[in-house]
Amino acid sequence: MIKNRSLAGKWAIGLFSLTLILVVLAFSTQNWLASDDRFYGAKLEKMGLWVHCFRSLTGPNDPTQRLFFSGCRWLFDTYTTGYAEIRSHLTPPFFIAVQMFYTLTFMCTATSGVLVLMLMFCIDEDRETCFLRVIATLMGLSGICGTLSVIIFGANGRSYEWTADKQHNYLSWSYGLGVLASFLALCDMALFLVDARIKQRKLEGRGSTRPKVKDTEI
Q1: pLDDT-derived band at 61, boundaries 50, 70, 90
Q2: Which Gene3D superfamilies match (predicted)?
Q3: Domain 2-30+88-204, what architecture?
Q4: Rounded to whole angstroms, how far apart are CA atoms 114 and 70?
Q5: pTM of the prediction?
């Protein structure tokens, strides 16, 4: 239980709770990139990993410009006429890489959340060290994948070709949450490893202080 944990363990679980919230928000919200509201002719309003919001976007293969997209739509929307045809235009290779890496971040963090609950309520002390190391590994992977995703998006996000107003785009608060979550995940990895080391030393100390039973001849 939490009350029996070391200081590093308590900090690790508390920091993990914050990290999980930040990862979920960054993964699900639609403010990774936004356009300046003061610029009237912008095509983009804001976008996340899975939702795009437009002011007025025309398809790249629509020279007559009779079809316009406005409002927010899920990336895999199948009900809007013509939206499936421009999906590849909205998701260049770098953006697919960002989606892939941050999905791995979300999956590793969510799996760690299940393991943390098991650690708090189900696991006995003899197996805690193993669980702590597994959680630390998952959080390390989460932090690495998250860092790669925010670096790739930060380097390429503002240069979206279809926005046509790149100078008015800026990285918004969902992206900031992603950066912070990636940093905290790496900090969490270190804290769980410290807690695992403390638990291992306690188990070793307990084993060395047990009285030895002498064999007696019958």
Answers
A1: low
A2: 1.20.140.150
A3: Up-down Bundle (1.20)
A4: 39
A5: 0.85
